[in-house]
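Dear Dr. V.,

Thank you for agreeing to look over these. As mentioned in my earlier message, I'm a first-year student in the group and I'm still getting used to reading structure tokens, so any feedback on how I've presented them would be very welcome. I ran two proteins. I've put each sequence directly above its structure. The first is here:
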Amino acid sequence: MTLRVVIADDHPITLMGVRAVLKSQSALKIVGEAQSVETLLDLLHQQPCELLVTDLNMPCDRQMDGLRLIQRLRRYYPDMAIVVVTMLDNPTLTAQLLKMNISGLVSKRGLLNDLPKAINHRGEQPFMSPSIQQLLSVSHDSSQQLHKLTAREVEVLRLIGSGLSVSMIAQHLCRSKQTISTQKISAMRKLGVDTAAALFTHIKACGLA
């Protein structure tokens, strides 16, 4: 059976590399390419596929970061396999991605060797490039603490770590200020911190800043 594949990346060289790897796989047929979130969403609406190979961070006018993109794709295309190709080196975000029922997480540094393995992987757990496995292993203790948080709570903490206030985060994510404040307080309670200074220290230690 030939699998229809859509590929997405805003870097032409990476897109070229992904295309070359996929064309070497006889069971795959590339049916579309995208270089932005908007183009990808429009393409998937028009062109069914069984596999998406996508970058995590692409230009977007809809205030949608990588985690929110994958969440949206999982919601609207639950049966589509997703392999994420990324330069991501943040263990916390990596751990959140792996909760989203993706098929594989491939480092762009190991694209040639790892992408075919991710596509052909049939294990119960997602395929991960060795460098990503090492990243998670080193940061295991910190990641264990953050597993208590929801994806939205992690998203809020990451934006706090980037210097945004609760009001600015609410505007950025198109949520109410009260919702963001509630998610912040919930995260603090789960992490066992009770001051803004302690929270920021924890955010930085966990790689979210």
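The second protein is here, in the same arrangement:
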Amino acid sequence: MAFVVSSLTDYVDQMSKELIQASHFEAKTASLIPNIQSGIKASQAIQLLGVNAFPQADTACGFVASGSTTFTQRNIVVGAIKYQDTLCPKTLRSKWTQTLLRPGSGDAESDLTFEADIAKGIVDLVNEQNENRLWQGNTLSTDPLLTAHEGLIKLIDAGSPVDGNTGSLTTWTSANAVAGMLAMVDALPAKLKGKSDLAIFCGTDFFDVYVTALLNKNWFHHDAATGNYEIKVPGKNVMIYGVHGLDGTNRMFGMRRENMYLGVDIQGEEERFDMWYSKDDRNVKYDVAYKMGVQVAYTEECVEFSF
């Protein structure tokens, strides 16, 4: 007599409690900005000082004043950002997720066994979205993920940056990437060359093409795989940083890192995660709230590439 199981649903073992989260890309840009101004609730000025003086012939007695000392400002405007959600533990009862609940009803379900997984997922997501917003932020954007504050692209474009696409490139390929990157370096203002903090920021997509171009030229001795999307332009004192915030934008920017400012209320506030059980409605809730913005001091010291 044979077993007859045709009326049964195929079995799937759902008892594993290991929760696997999707990957989020690294938030790199904020860690590369050396100047952090904290305590900003809405807006705070970067104080700029410009000194101009003229040589004079020292052939006679007397004192003749010339030149100027000028104070100017650029404001860091931060956006107030929050992430909040309400999670009902009772929703988990009817599925395999019931195994994640502690025995009992009512307040017994308040202690979720996977709170740390939720917290990590939210913090990683917040950092990923911050990375995009630091570059692509635009308060007039139709994308709600970008509207909290202005990003570096908009701020630099609104100033007086130097054109780095001197070859009028319309694509970025392994055939032209080396020449295109050297053109960016050459376009840096002469007064910046020799500074130890010179950097070119590009998307990881541009970075990959550039490294391929180096390898195609057999420039292996220049260590074309420094790691973590960082490499020095061969023969130059300029670091290239591949950052996800510029992925897909077809943009590059060259400047001193000292020219970049990050504005916050409290440093690291975006990674402070609060989760609690609310007895009034029997829900688990979480909250992340912080302020963040960005600025450059001198846009005329920036080189921008676009096509």
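From my reading of the second output: Helices lie at 29-32, 115-136, 152-157, 177-187, 204-216. The first strand starts at residue 35 and ends at 37. Does that match how you would interpret it?

Kind regards,
E.
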